[in-house]
From TrEMBL:
PANTHER family recorded: L-ORNITHINE N(5)-MONOOXYGENASE, PTHR38663
InterPro entries: FAD/NAD-bd_sf
Superkingdom assignment: Eukaryota
Gene3D superfamilies with a match to the protein in the record: FAD/NAD(P)-binding domain (3.50.50.60)
Species, as recorded: Skeletonema marinoi
Protein name: L-ornithine N(5)-oxygenase
Length: 147
């Protein structure tokens, strides 16, 4: 993931005694906003936006919701916390995707699409804002054989 929940998890992990290092991986760049929707949806033009929204058919409303919400937003003060921890116990990798995960010697070997050498991890947390299941992520398909 790349939003507030994943940022909070990364920060909590850096504060823990049981975690030596944390890598926070995001598919996109950090999106510094206080809310998942733009301010116009909370301002004086909110009524007109809502009226226009409810005039759309169901499929158009779904499309509009996805466009408006965006996602992956992190409040600026949390981004500052991440920056303060980077280089200590935290490494932040933006605009990369996990392409493959292998189980090697009781550790997870993670490959990214940025051409970097694969890294080894003890655990992976998926904070994607969606229901997670190993079958939904092609990069994790190799793990199906060992789980």
């Amino acid at each position: 993931g790349g939003g507030l929940t994943s940022a909070q998890l990364a920060l909590l992990a850096t504060e823990s005694n049981w975690c030596k290092e944390v890598t926070f991986i995001q598919r996109s760049k950090m999106n510094p906003r206080h809310f998942d929707i733009g301010n116009e949806w909370m301002g004086p033009k909110r009524g007109k936006l809502l009226e226009d929204f409810w005039c759309l058919d169901v499929n158009e409303r779904v499309k509009k919701l996805k466009e408006t919400r965006g996602g992956g937003t992190i409040p600026p003060e949390v981004i500052l916390e991440l920056a303060a921890n980077q280089g200590k116990k935290l490494e932040v990798k933006e605009e990369v995707e996990v392409t493959k995960v292998l189980w090697v010697d009781d550790r997870l070997q993670v490959f990214l699409d940025d051409g970097s050498e694969p890294d080894f991890y003890d655990m992976i947390w998926l904070a994607t804002g969606a229901q997670n299941h190993i079958d939904h992520y092609s990069a994790l398909s190799h793990l199906r054989q060992v789980l």
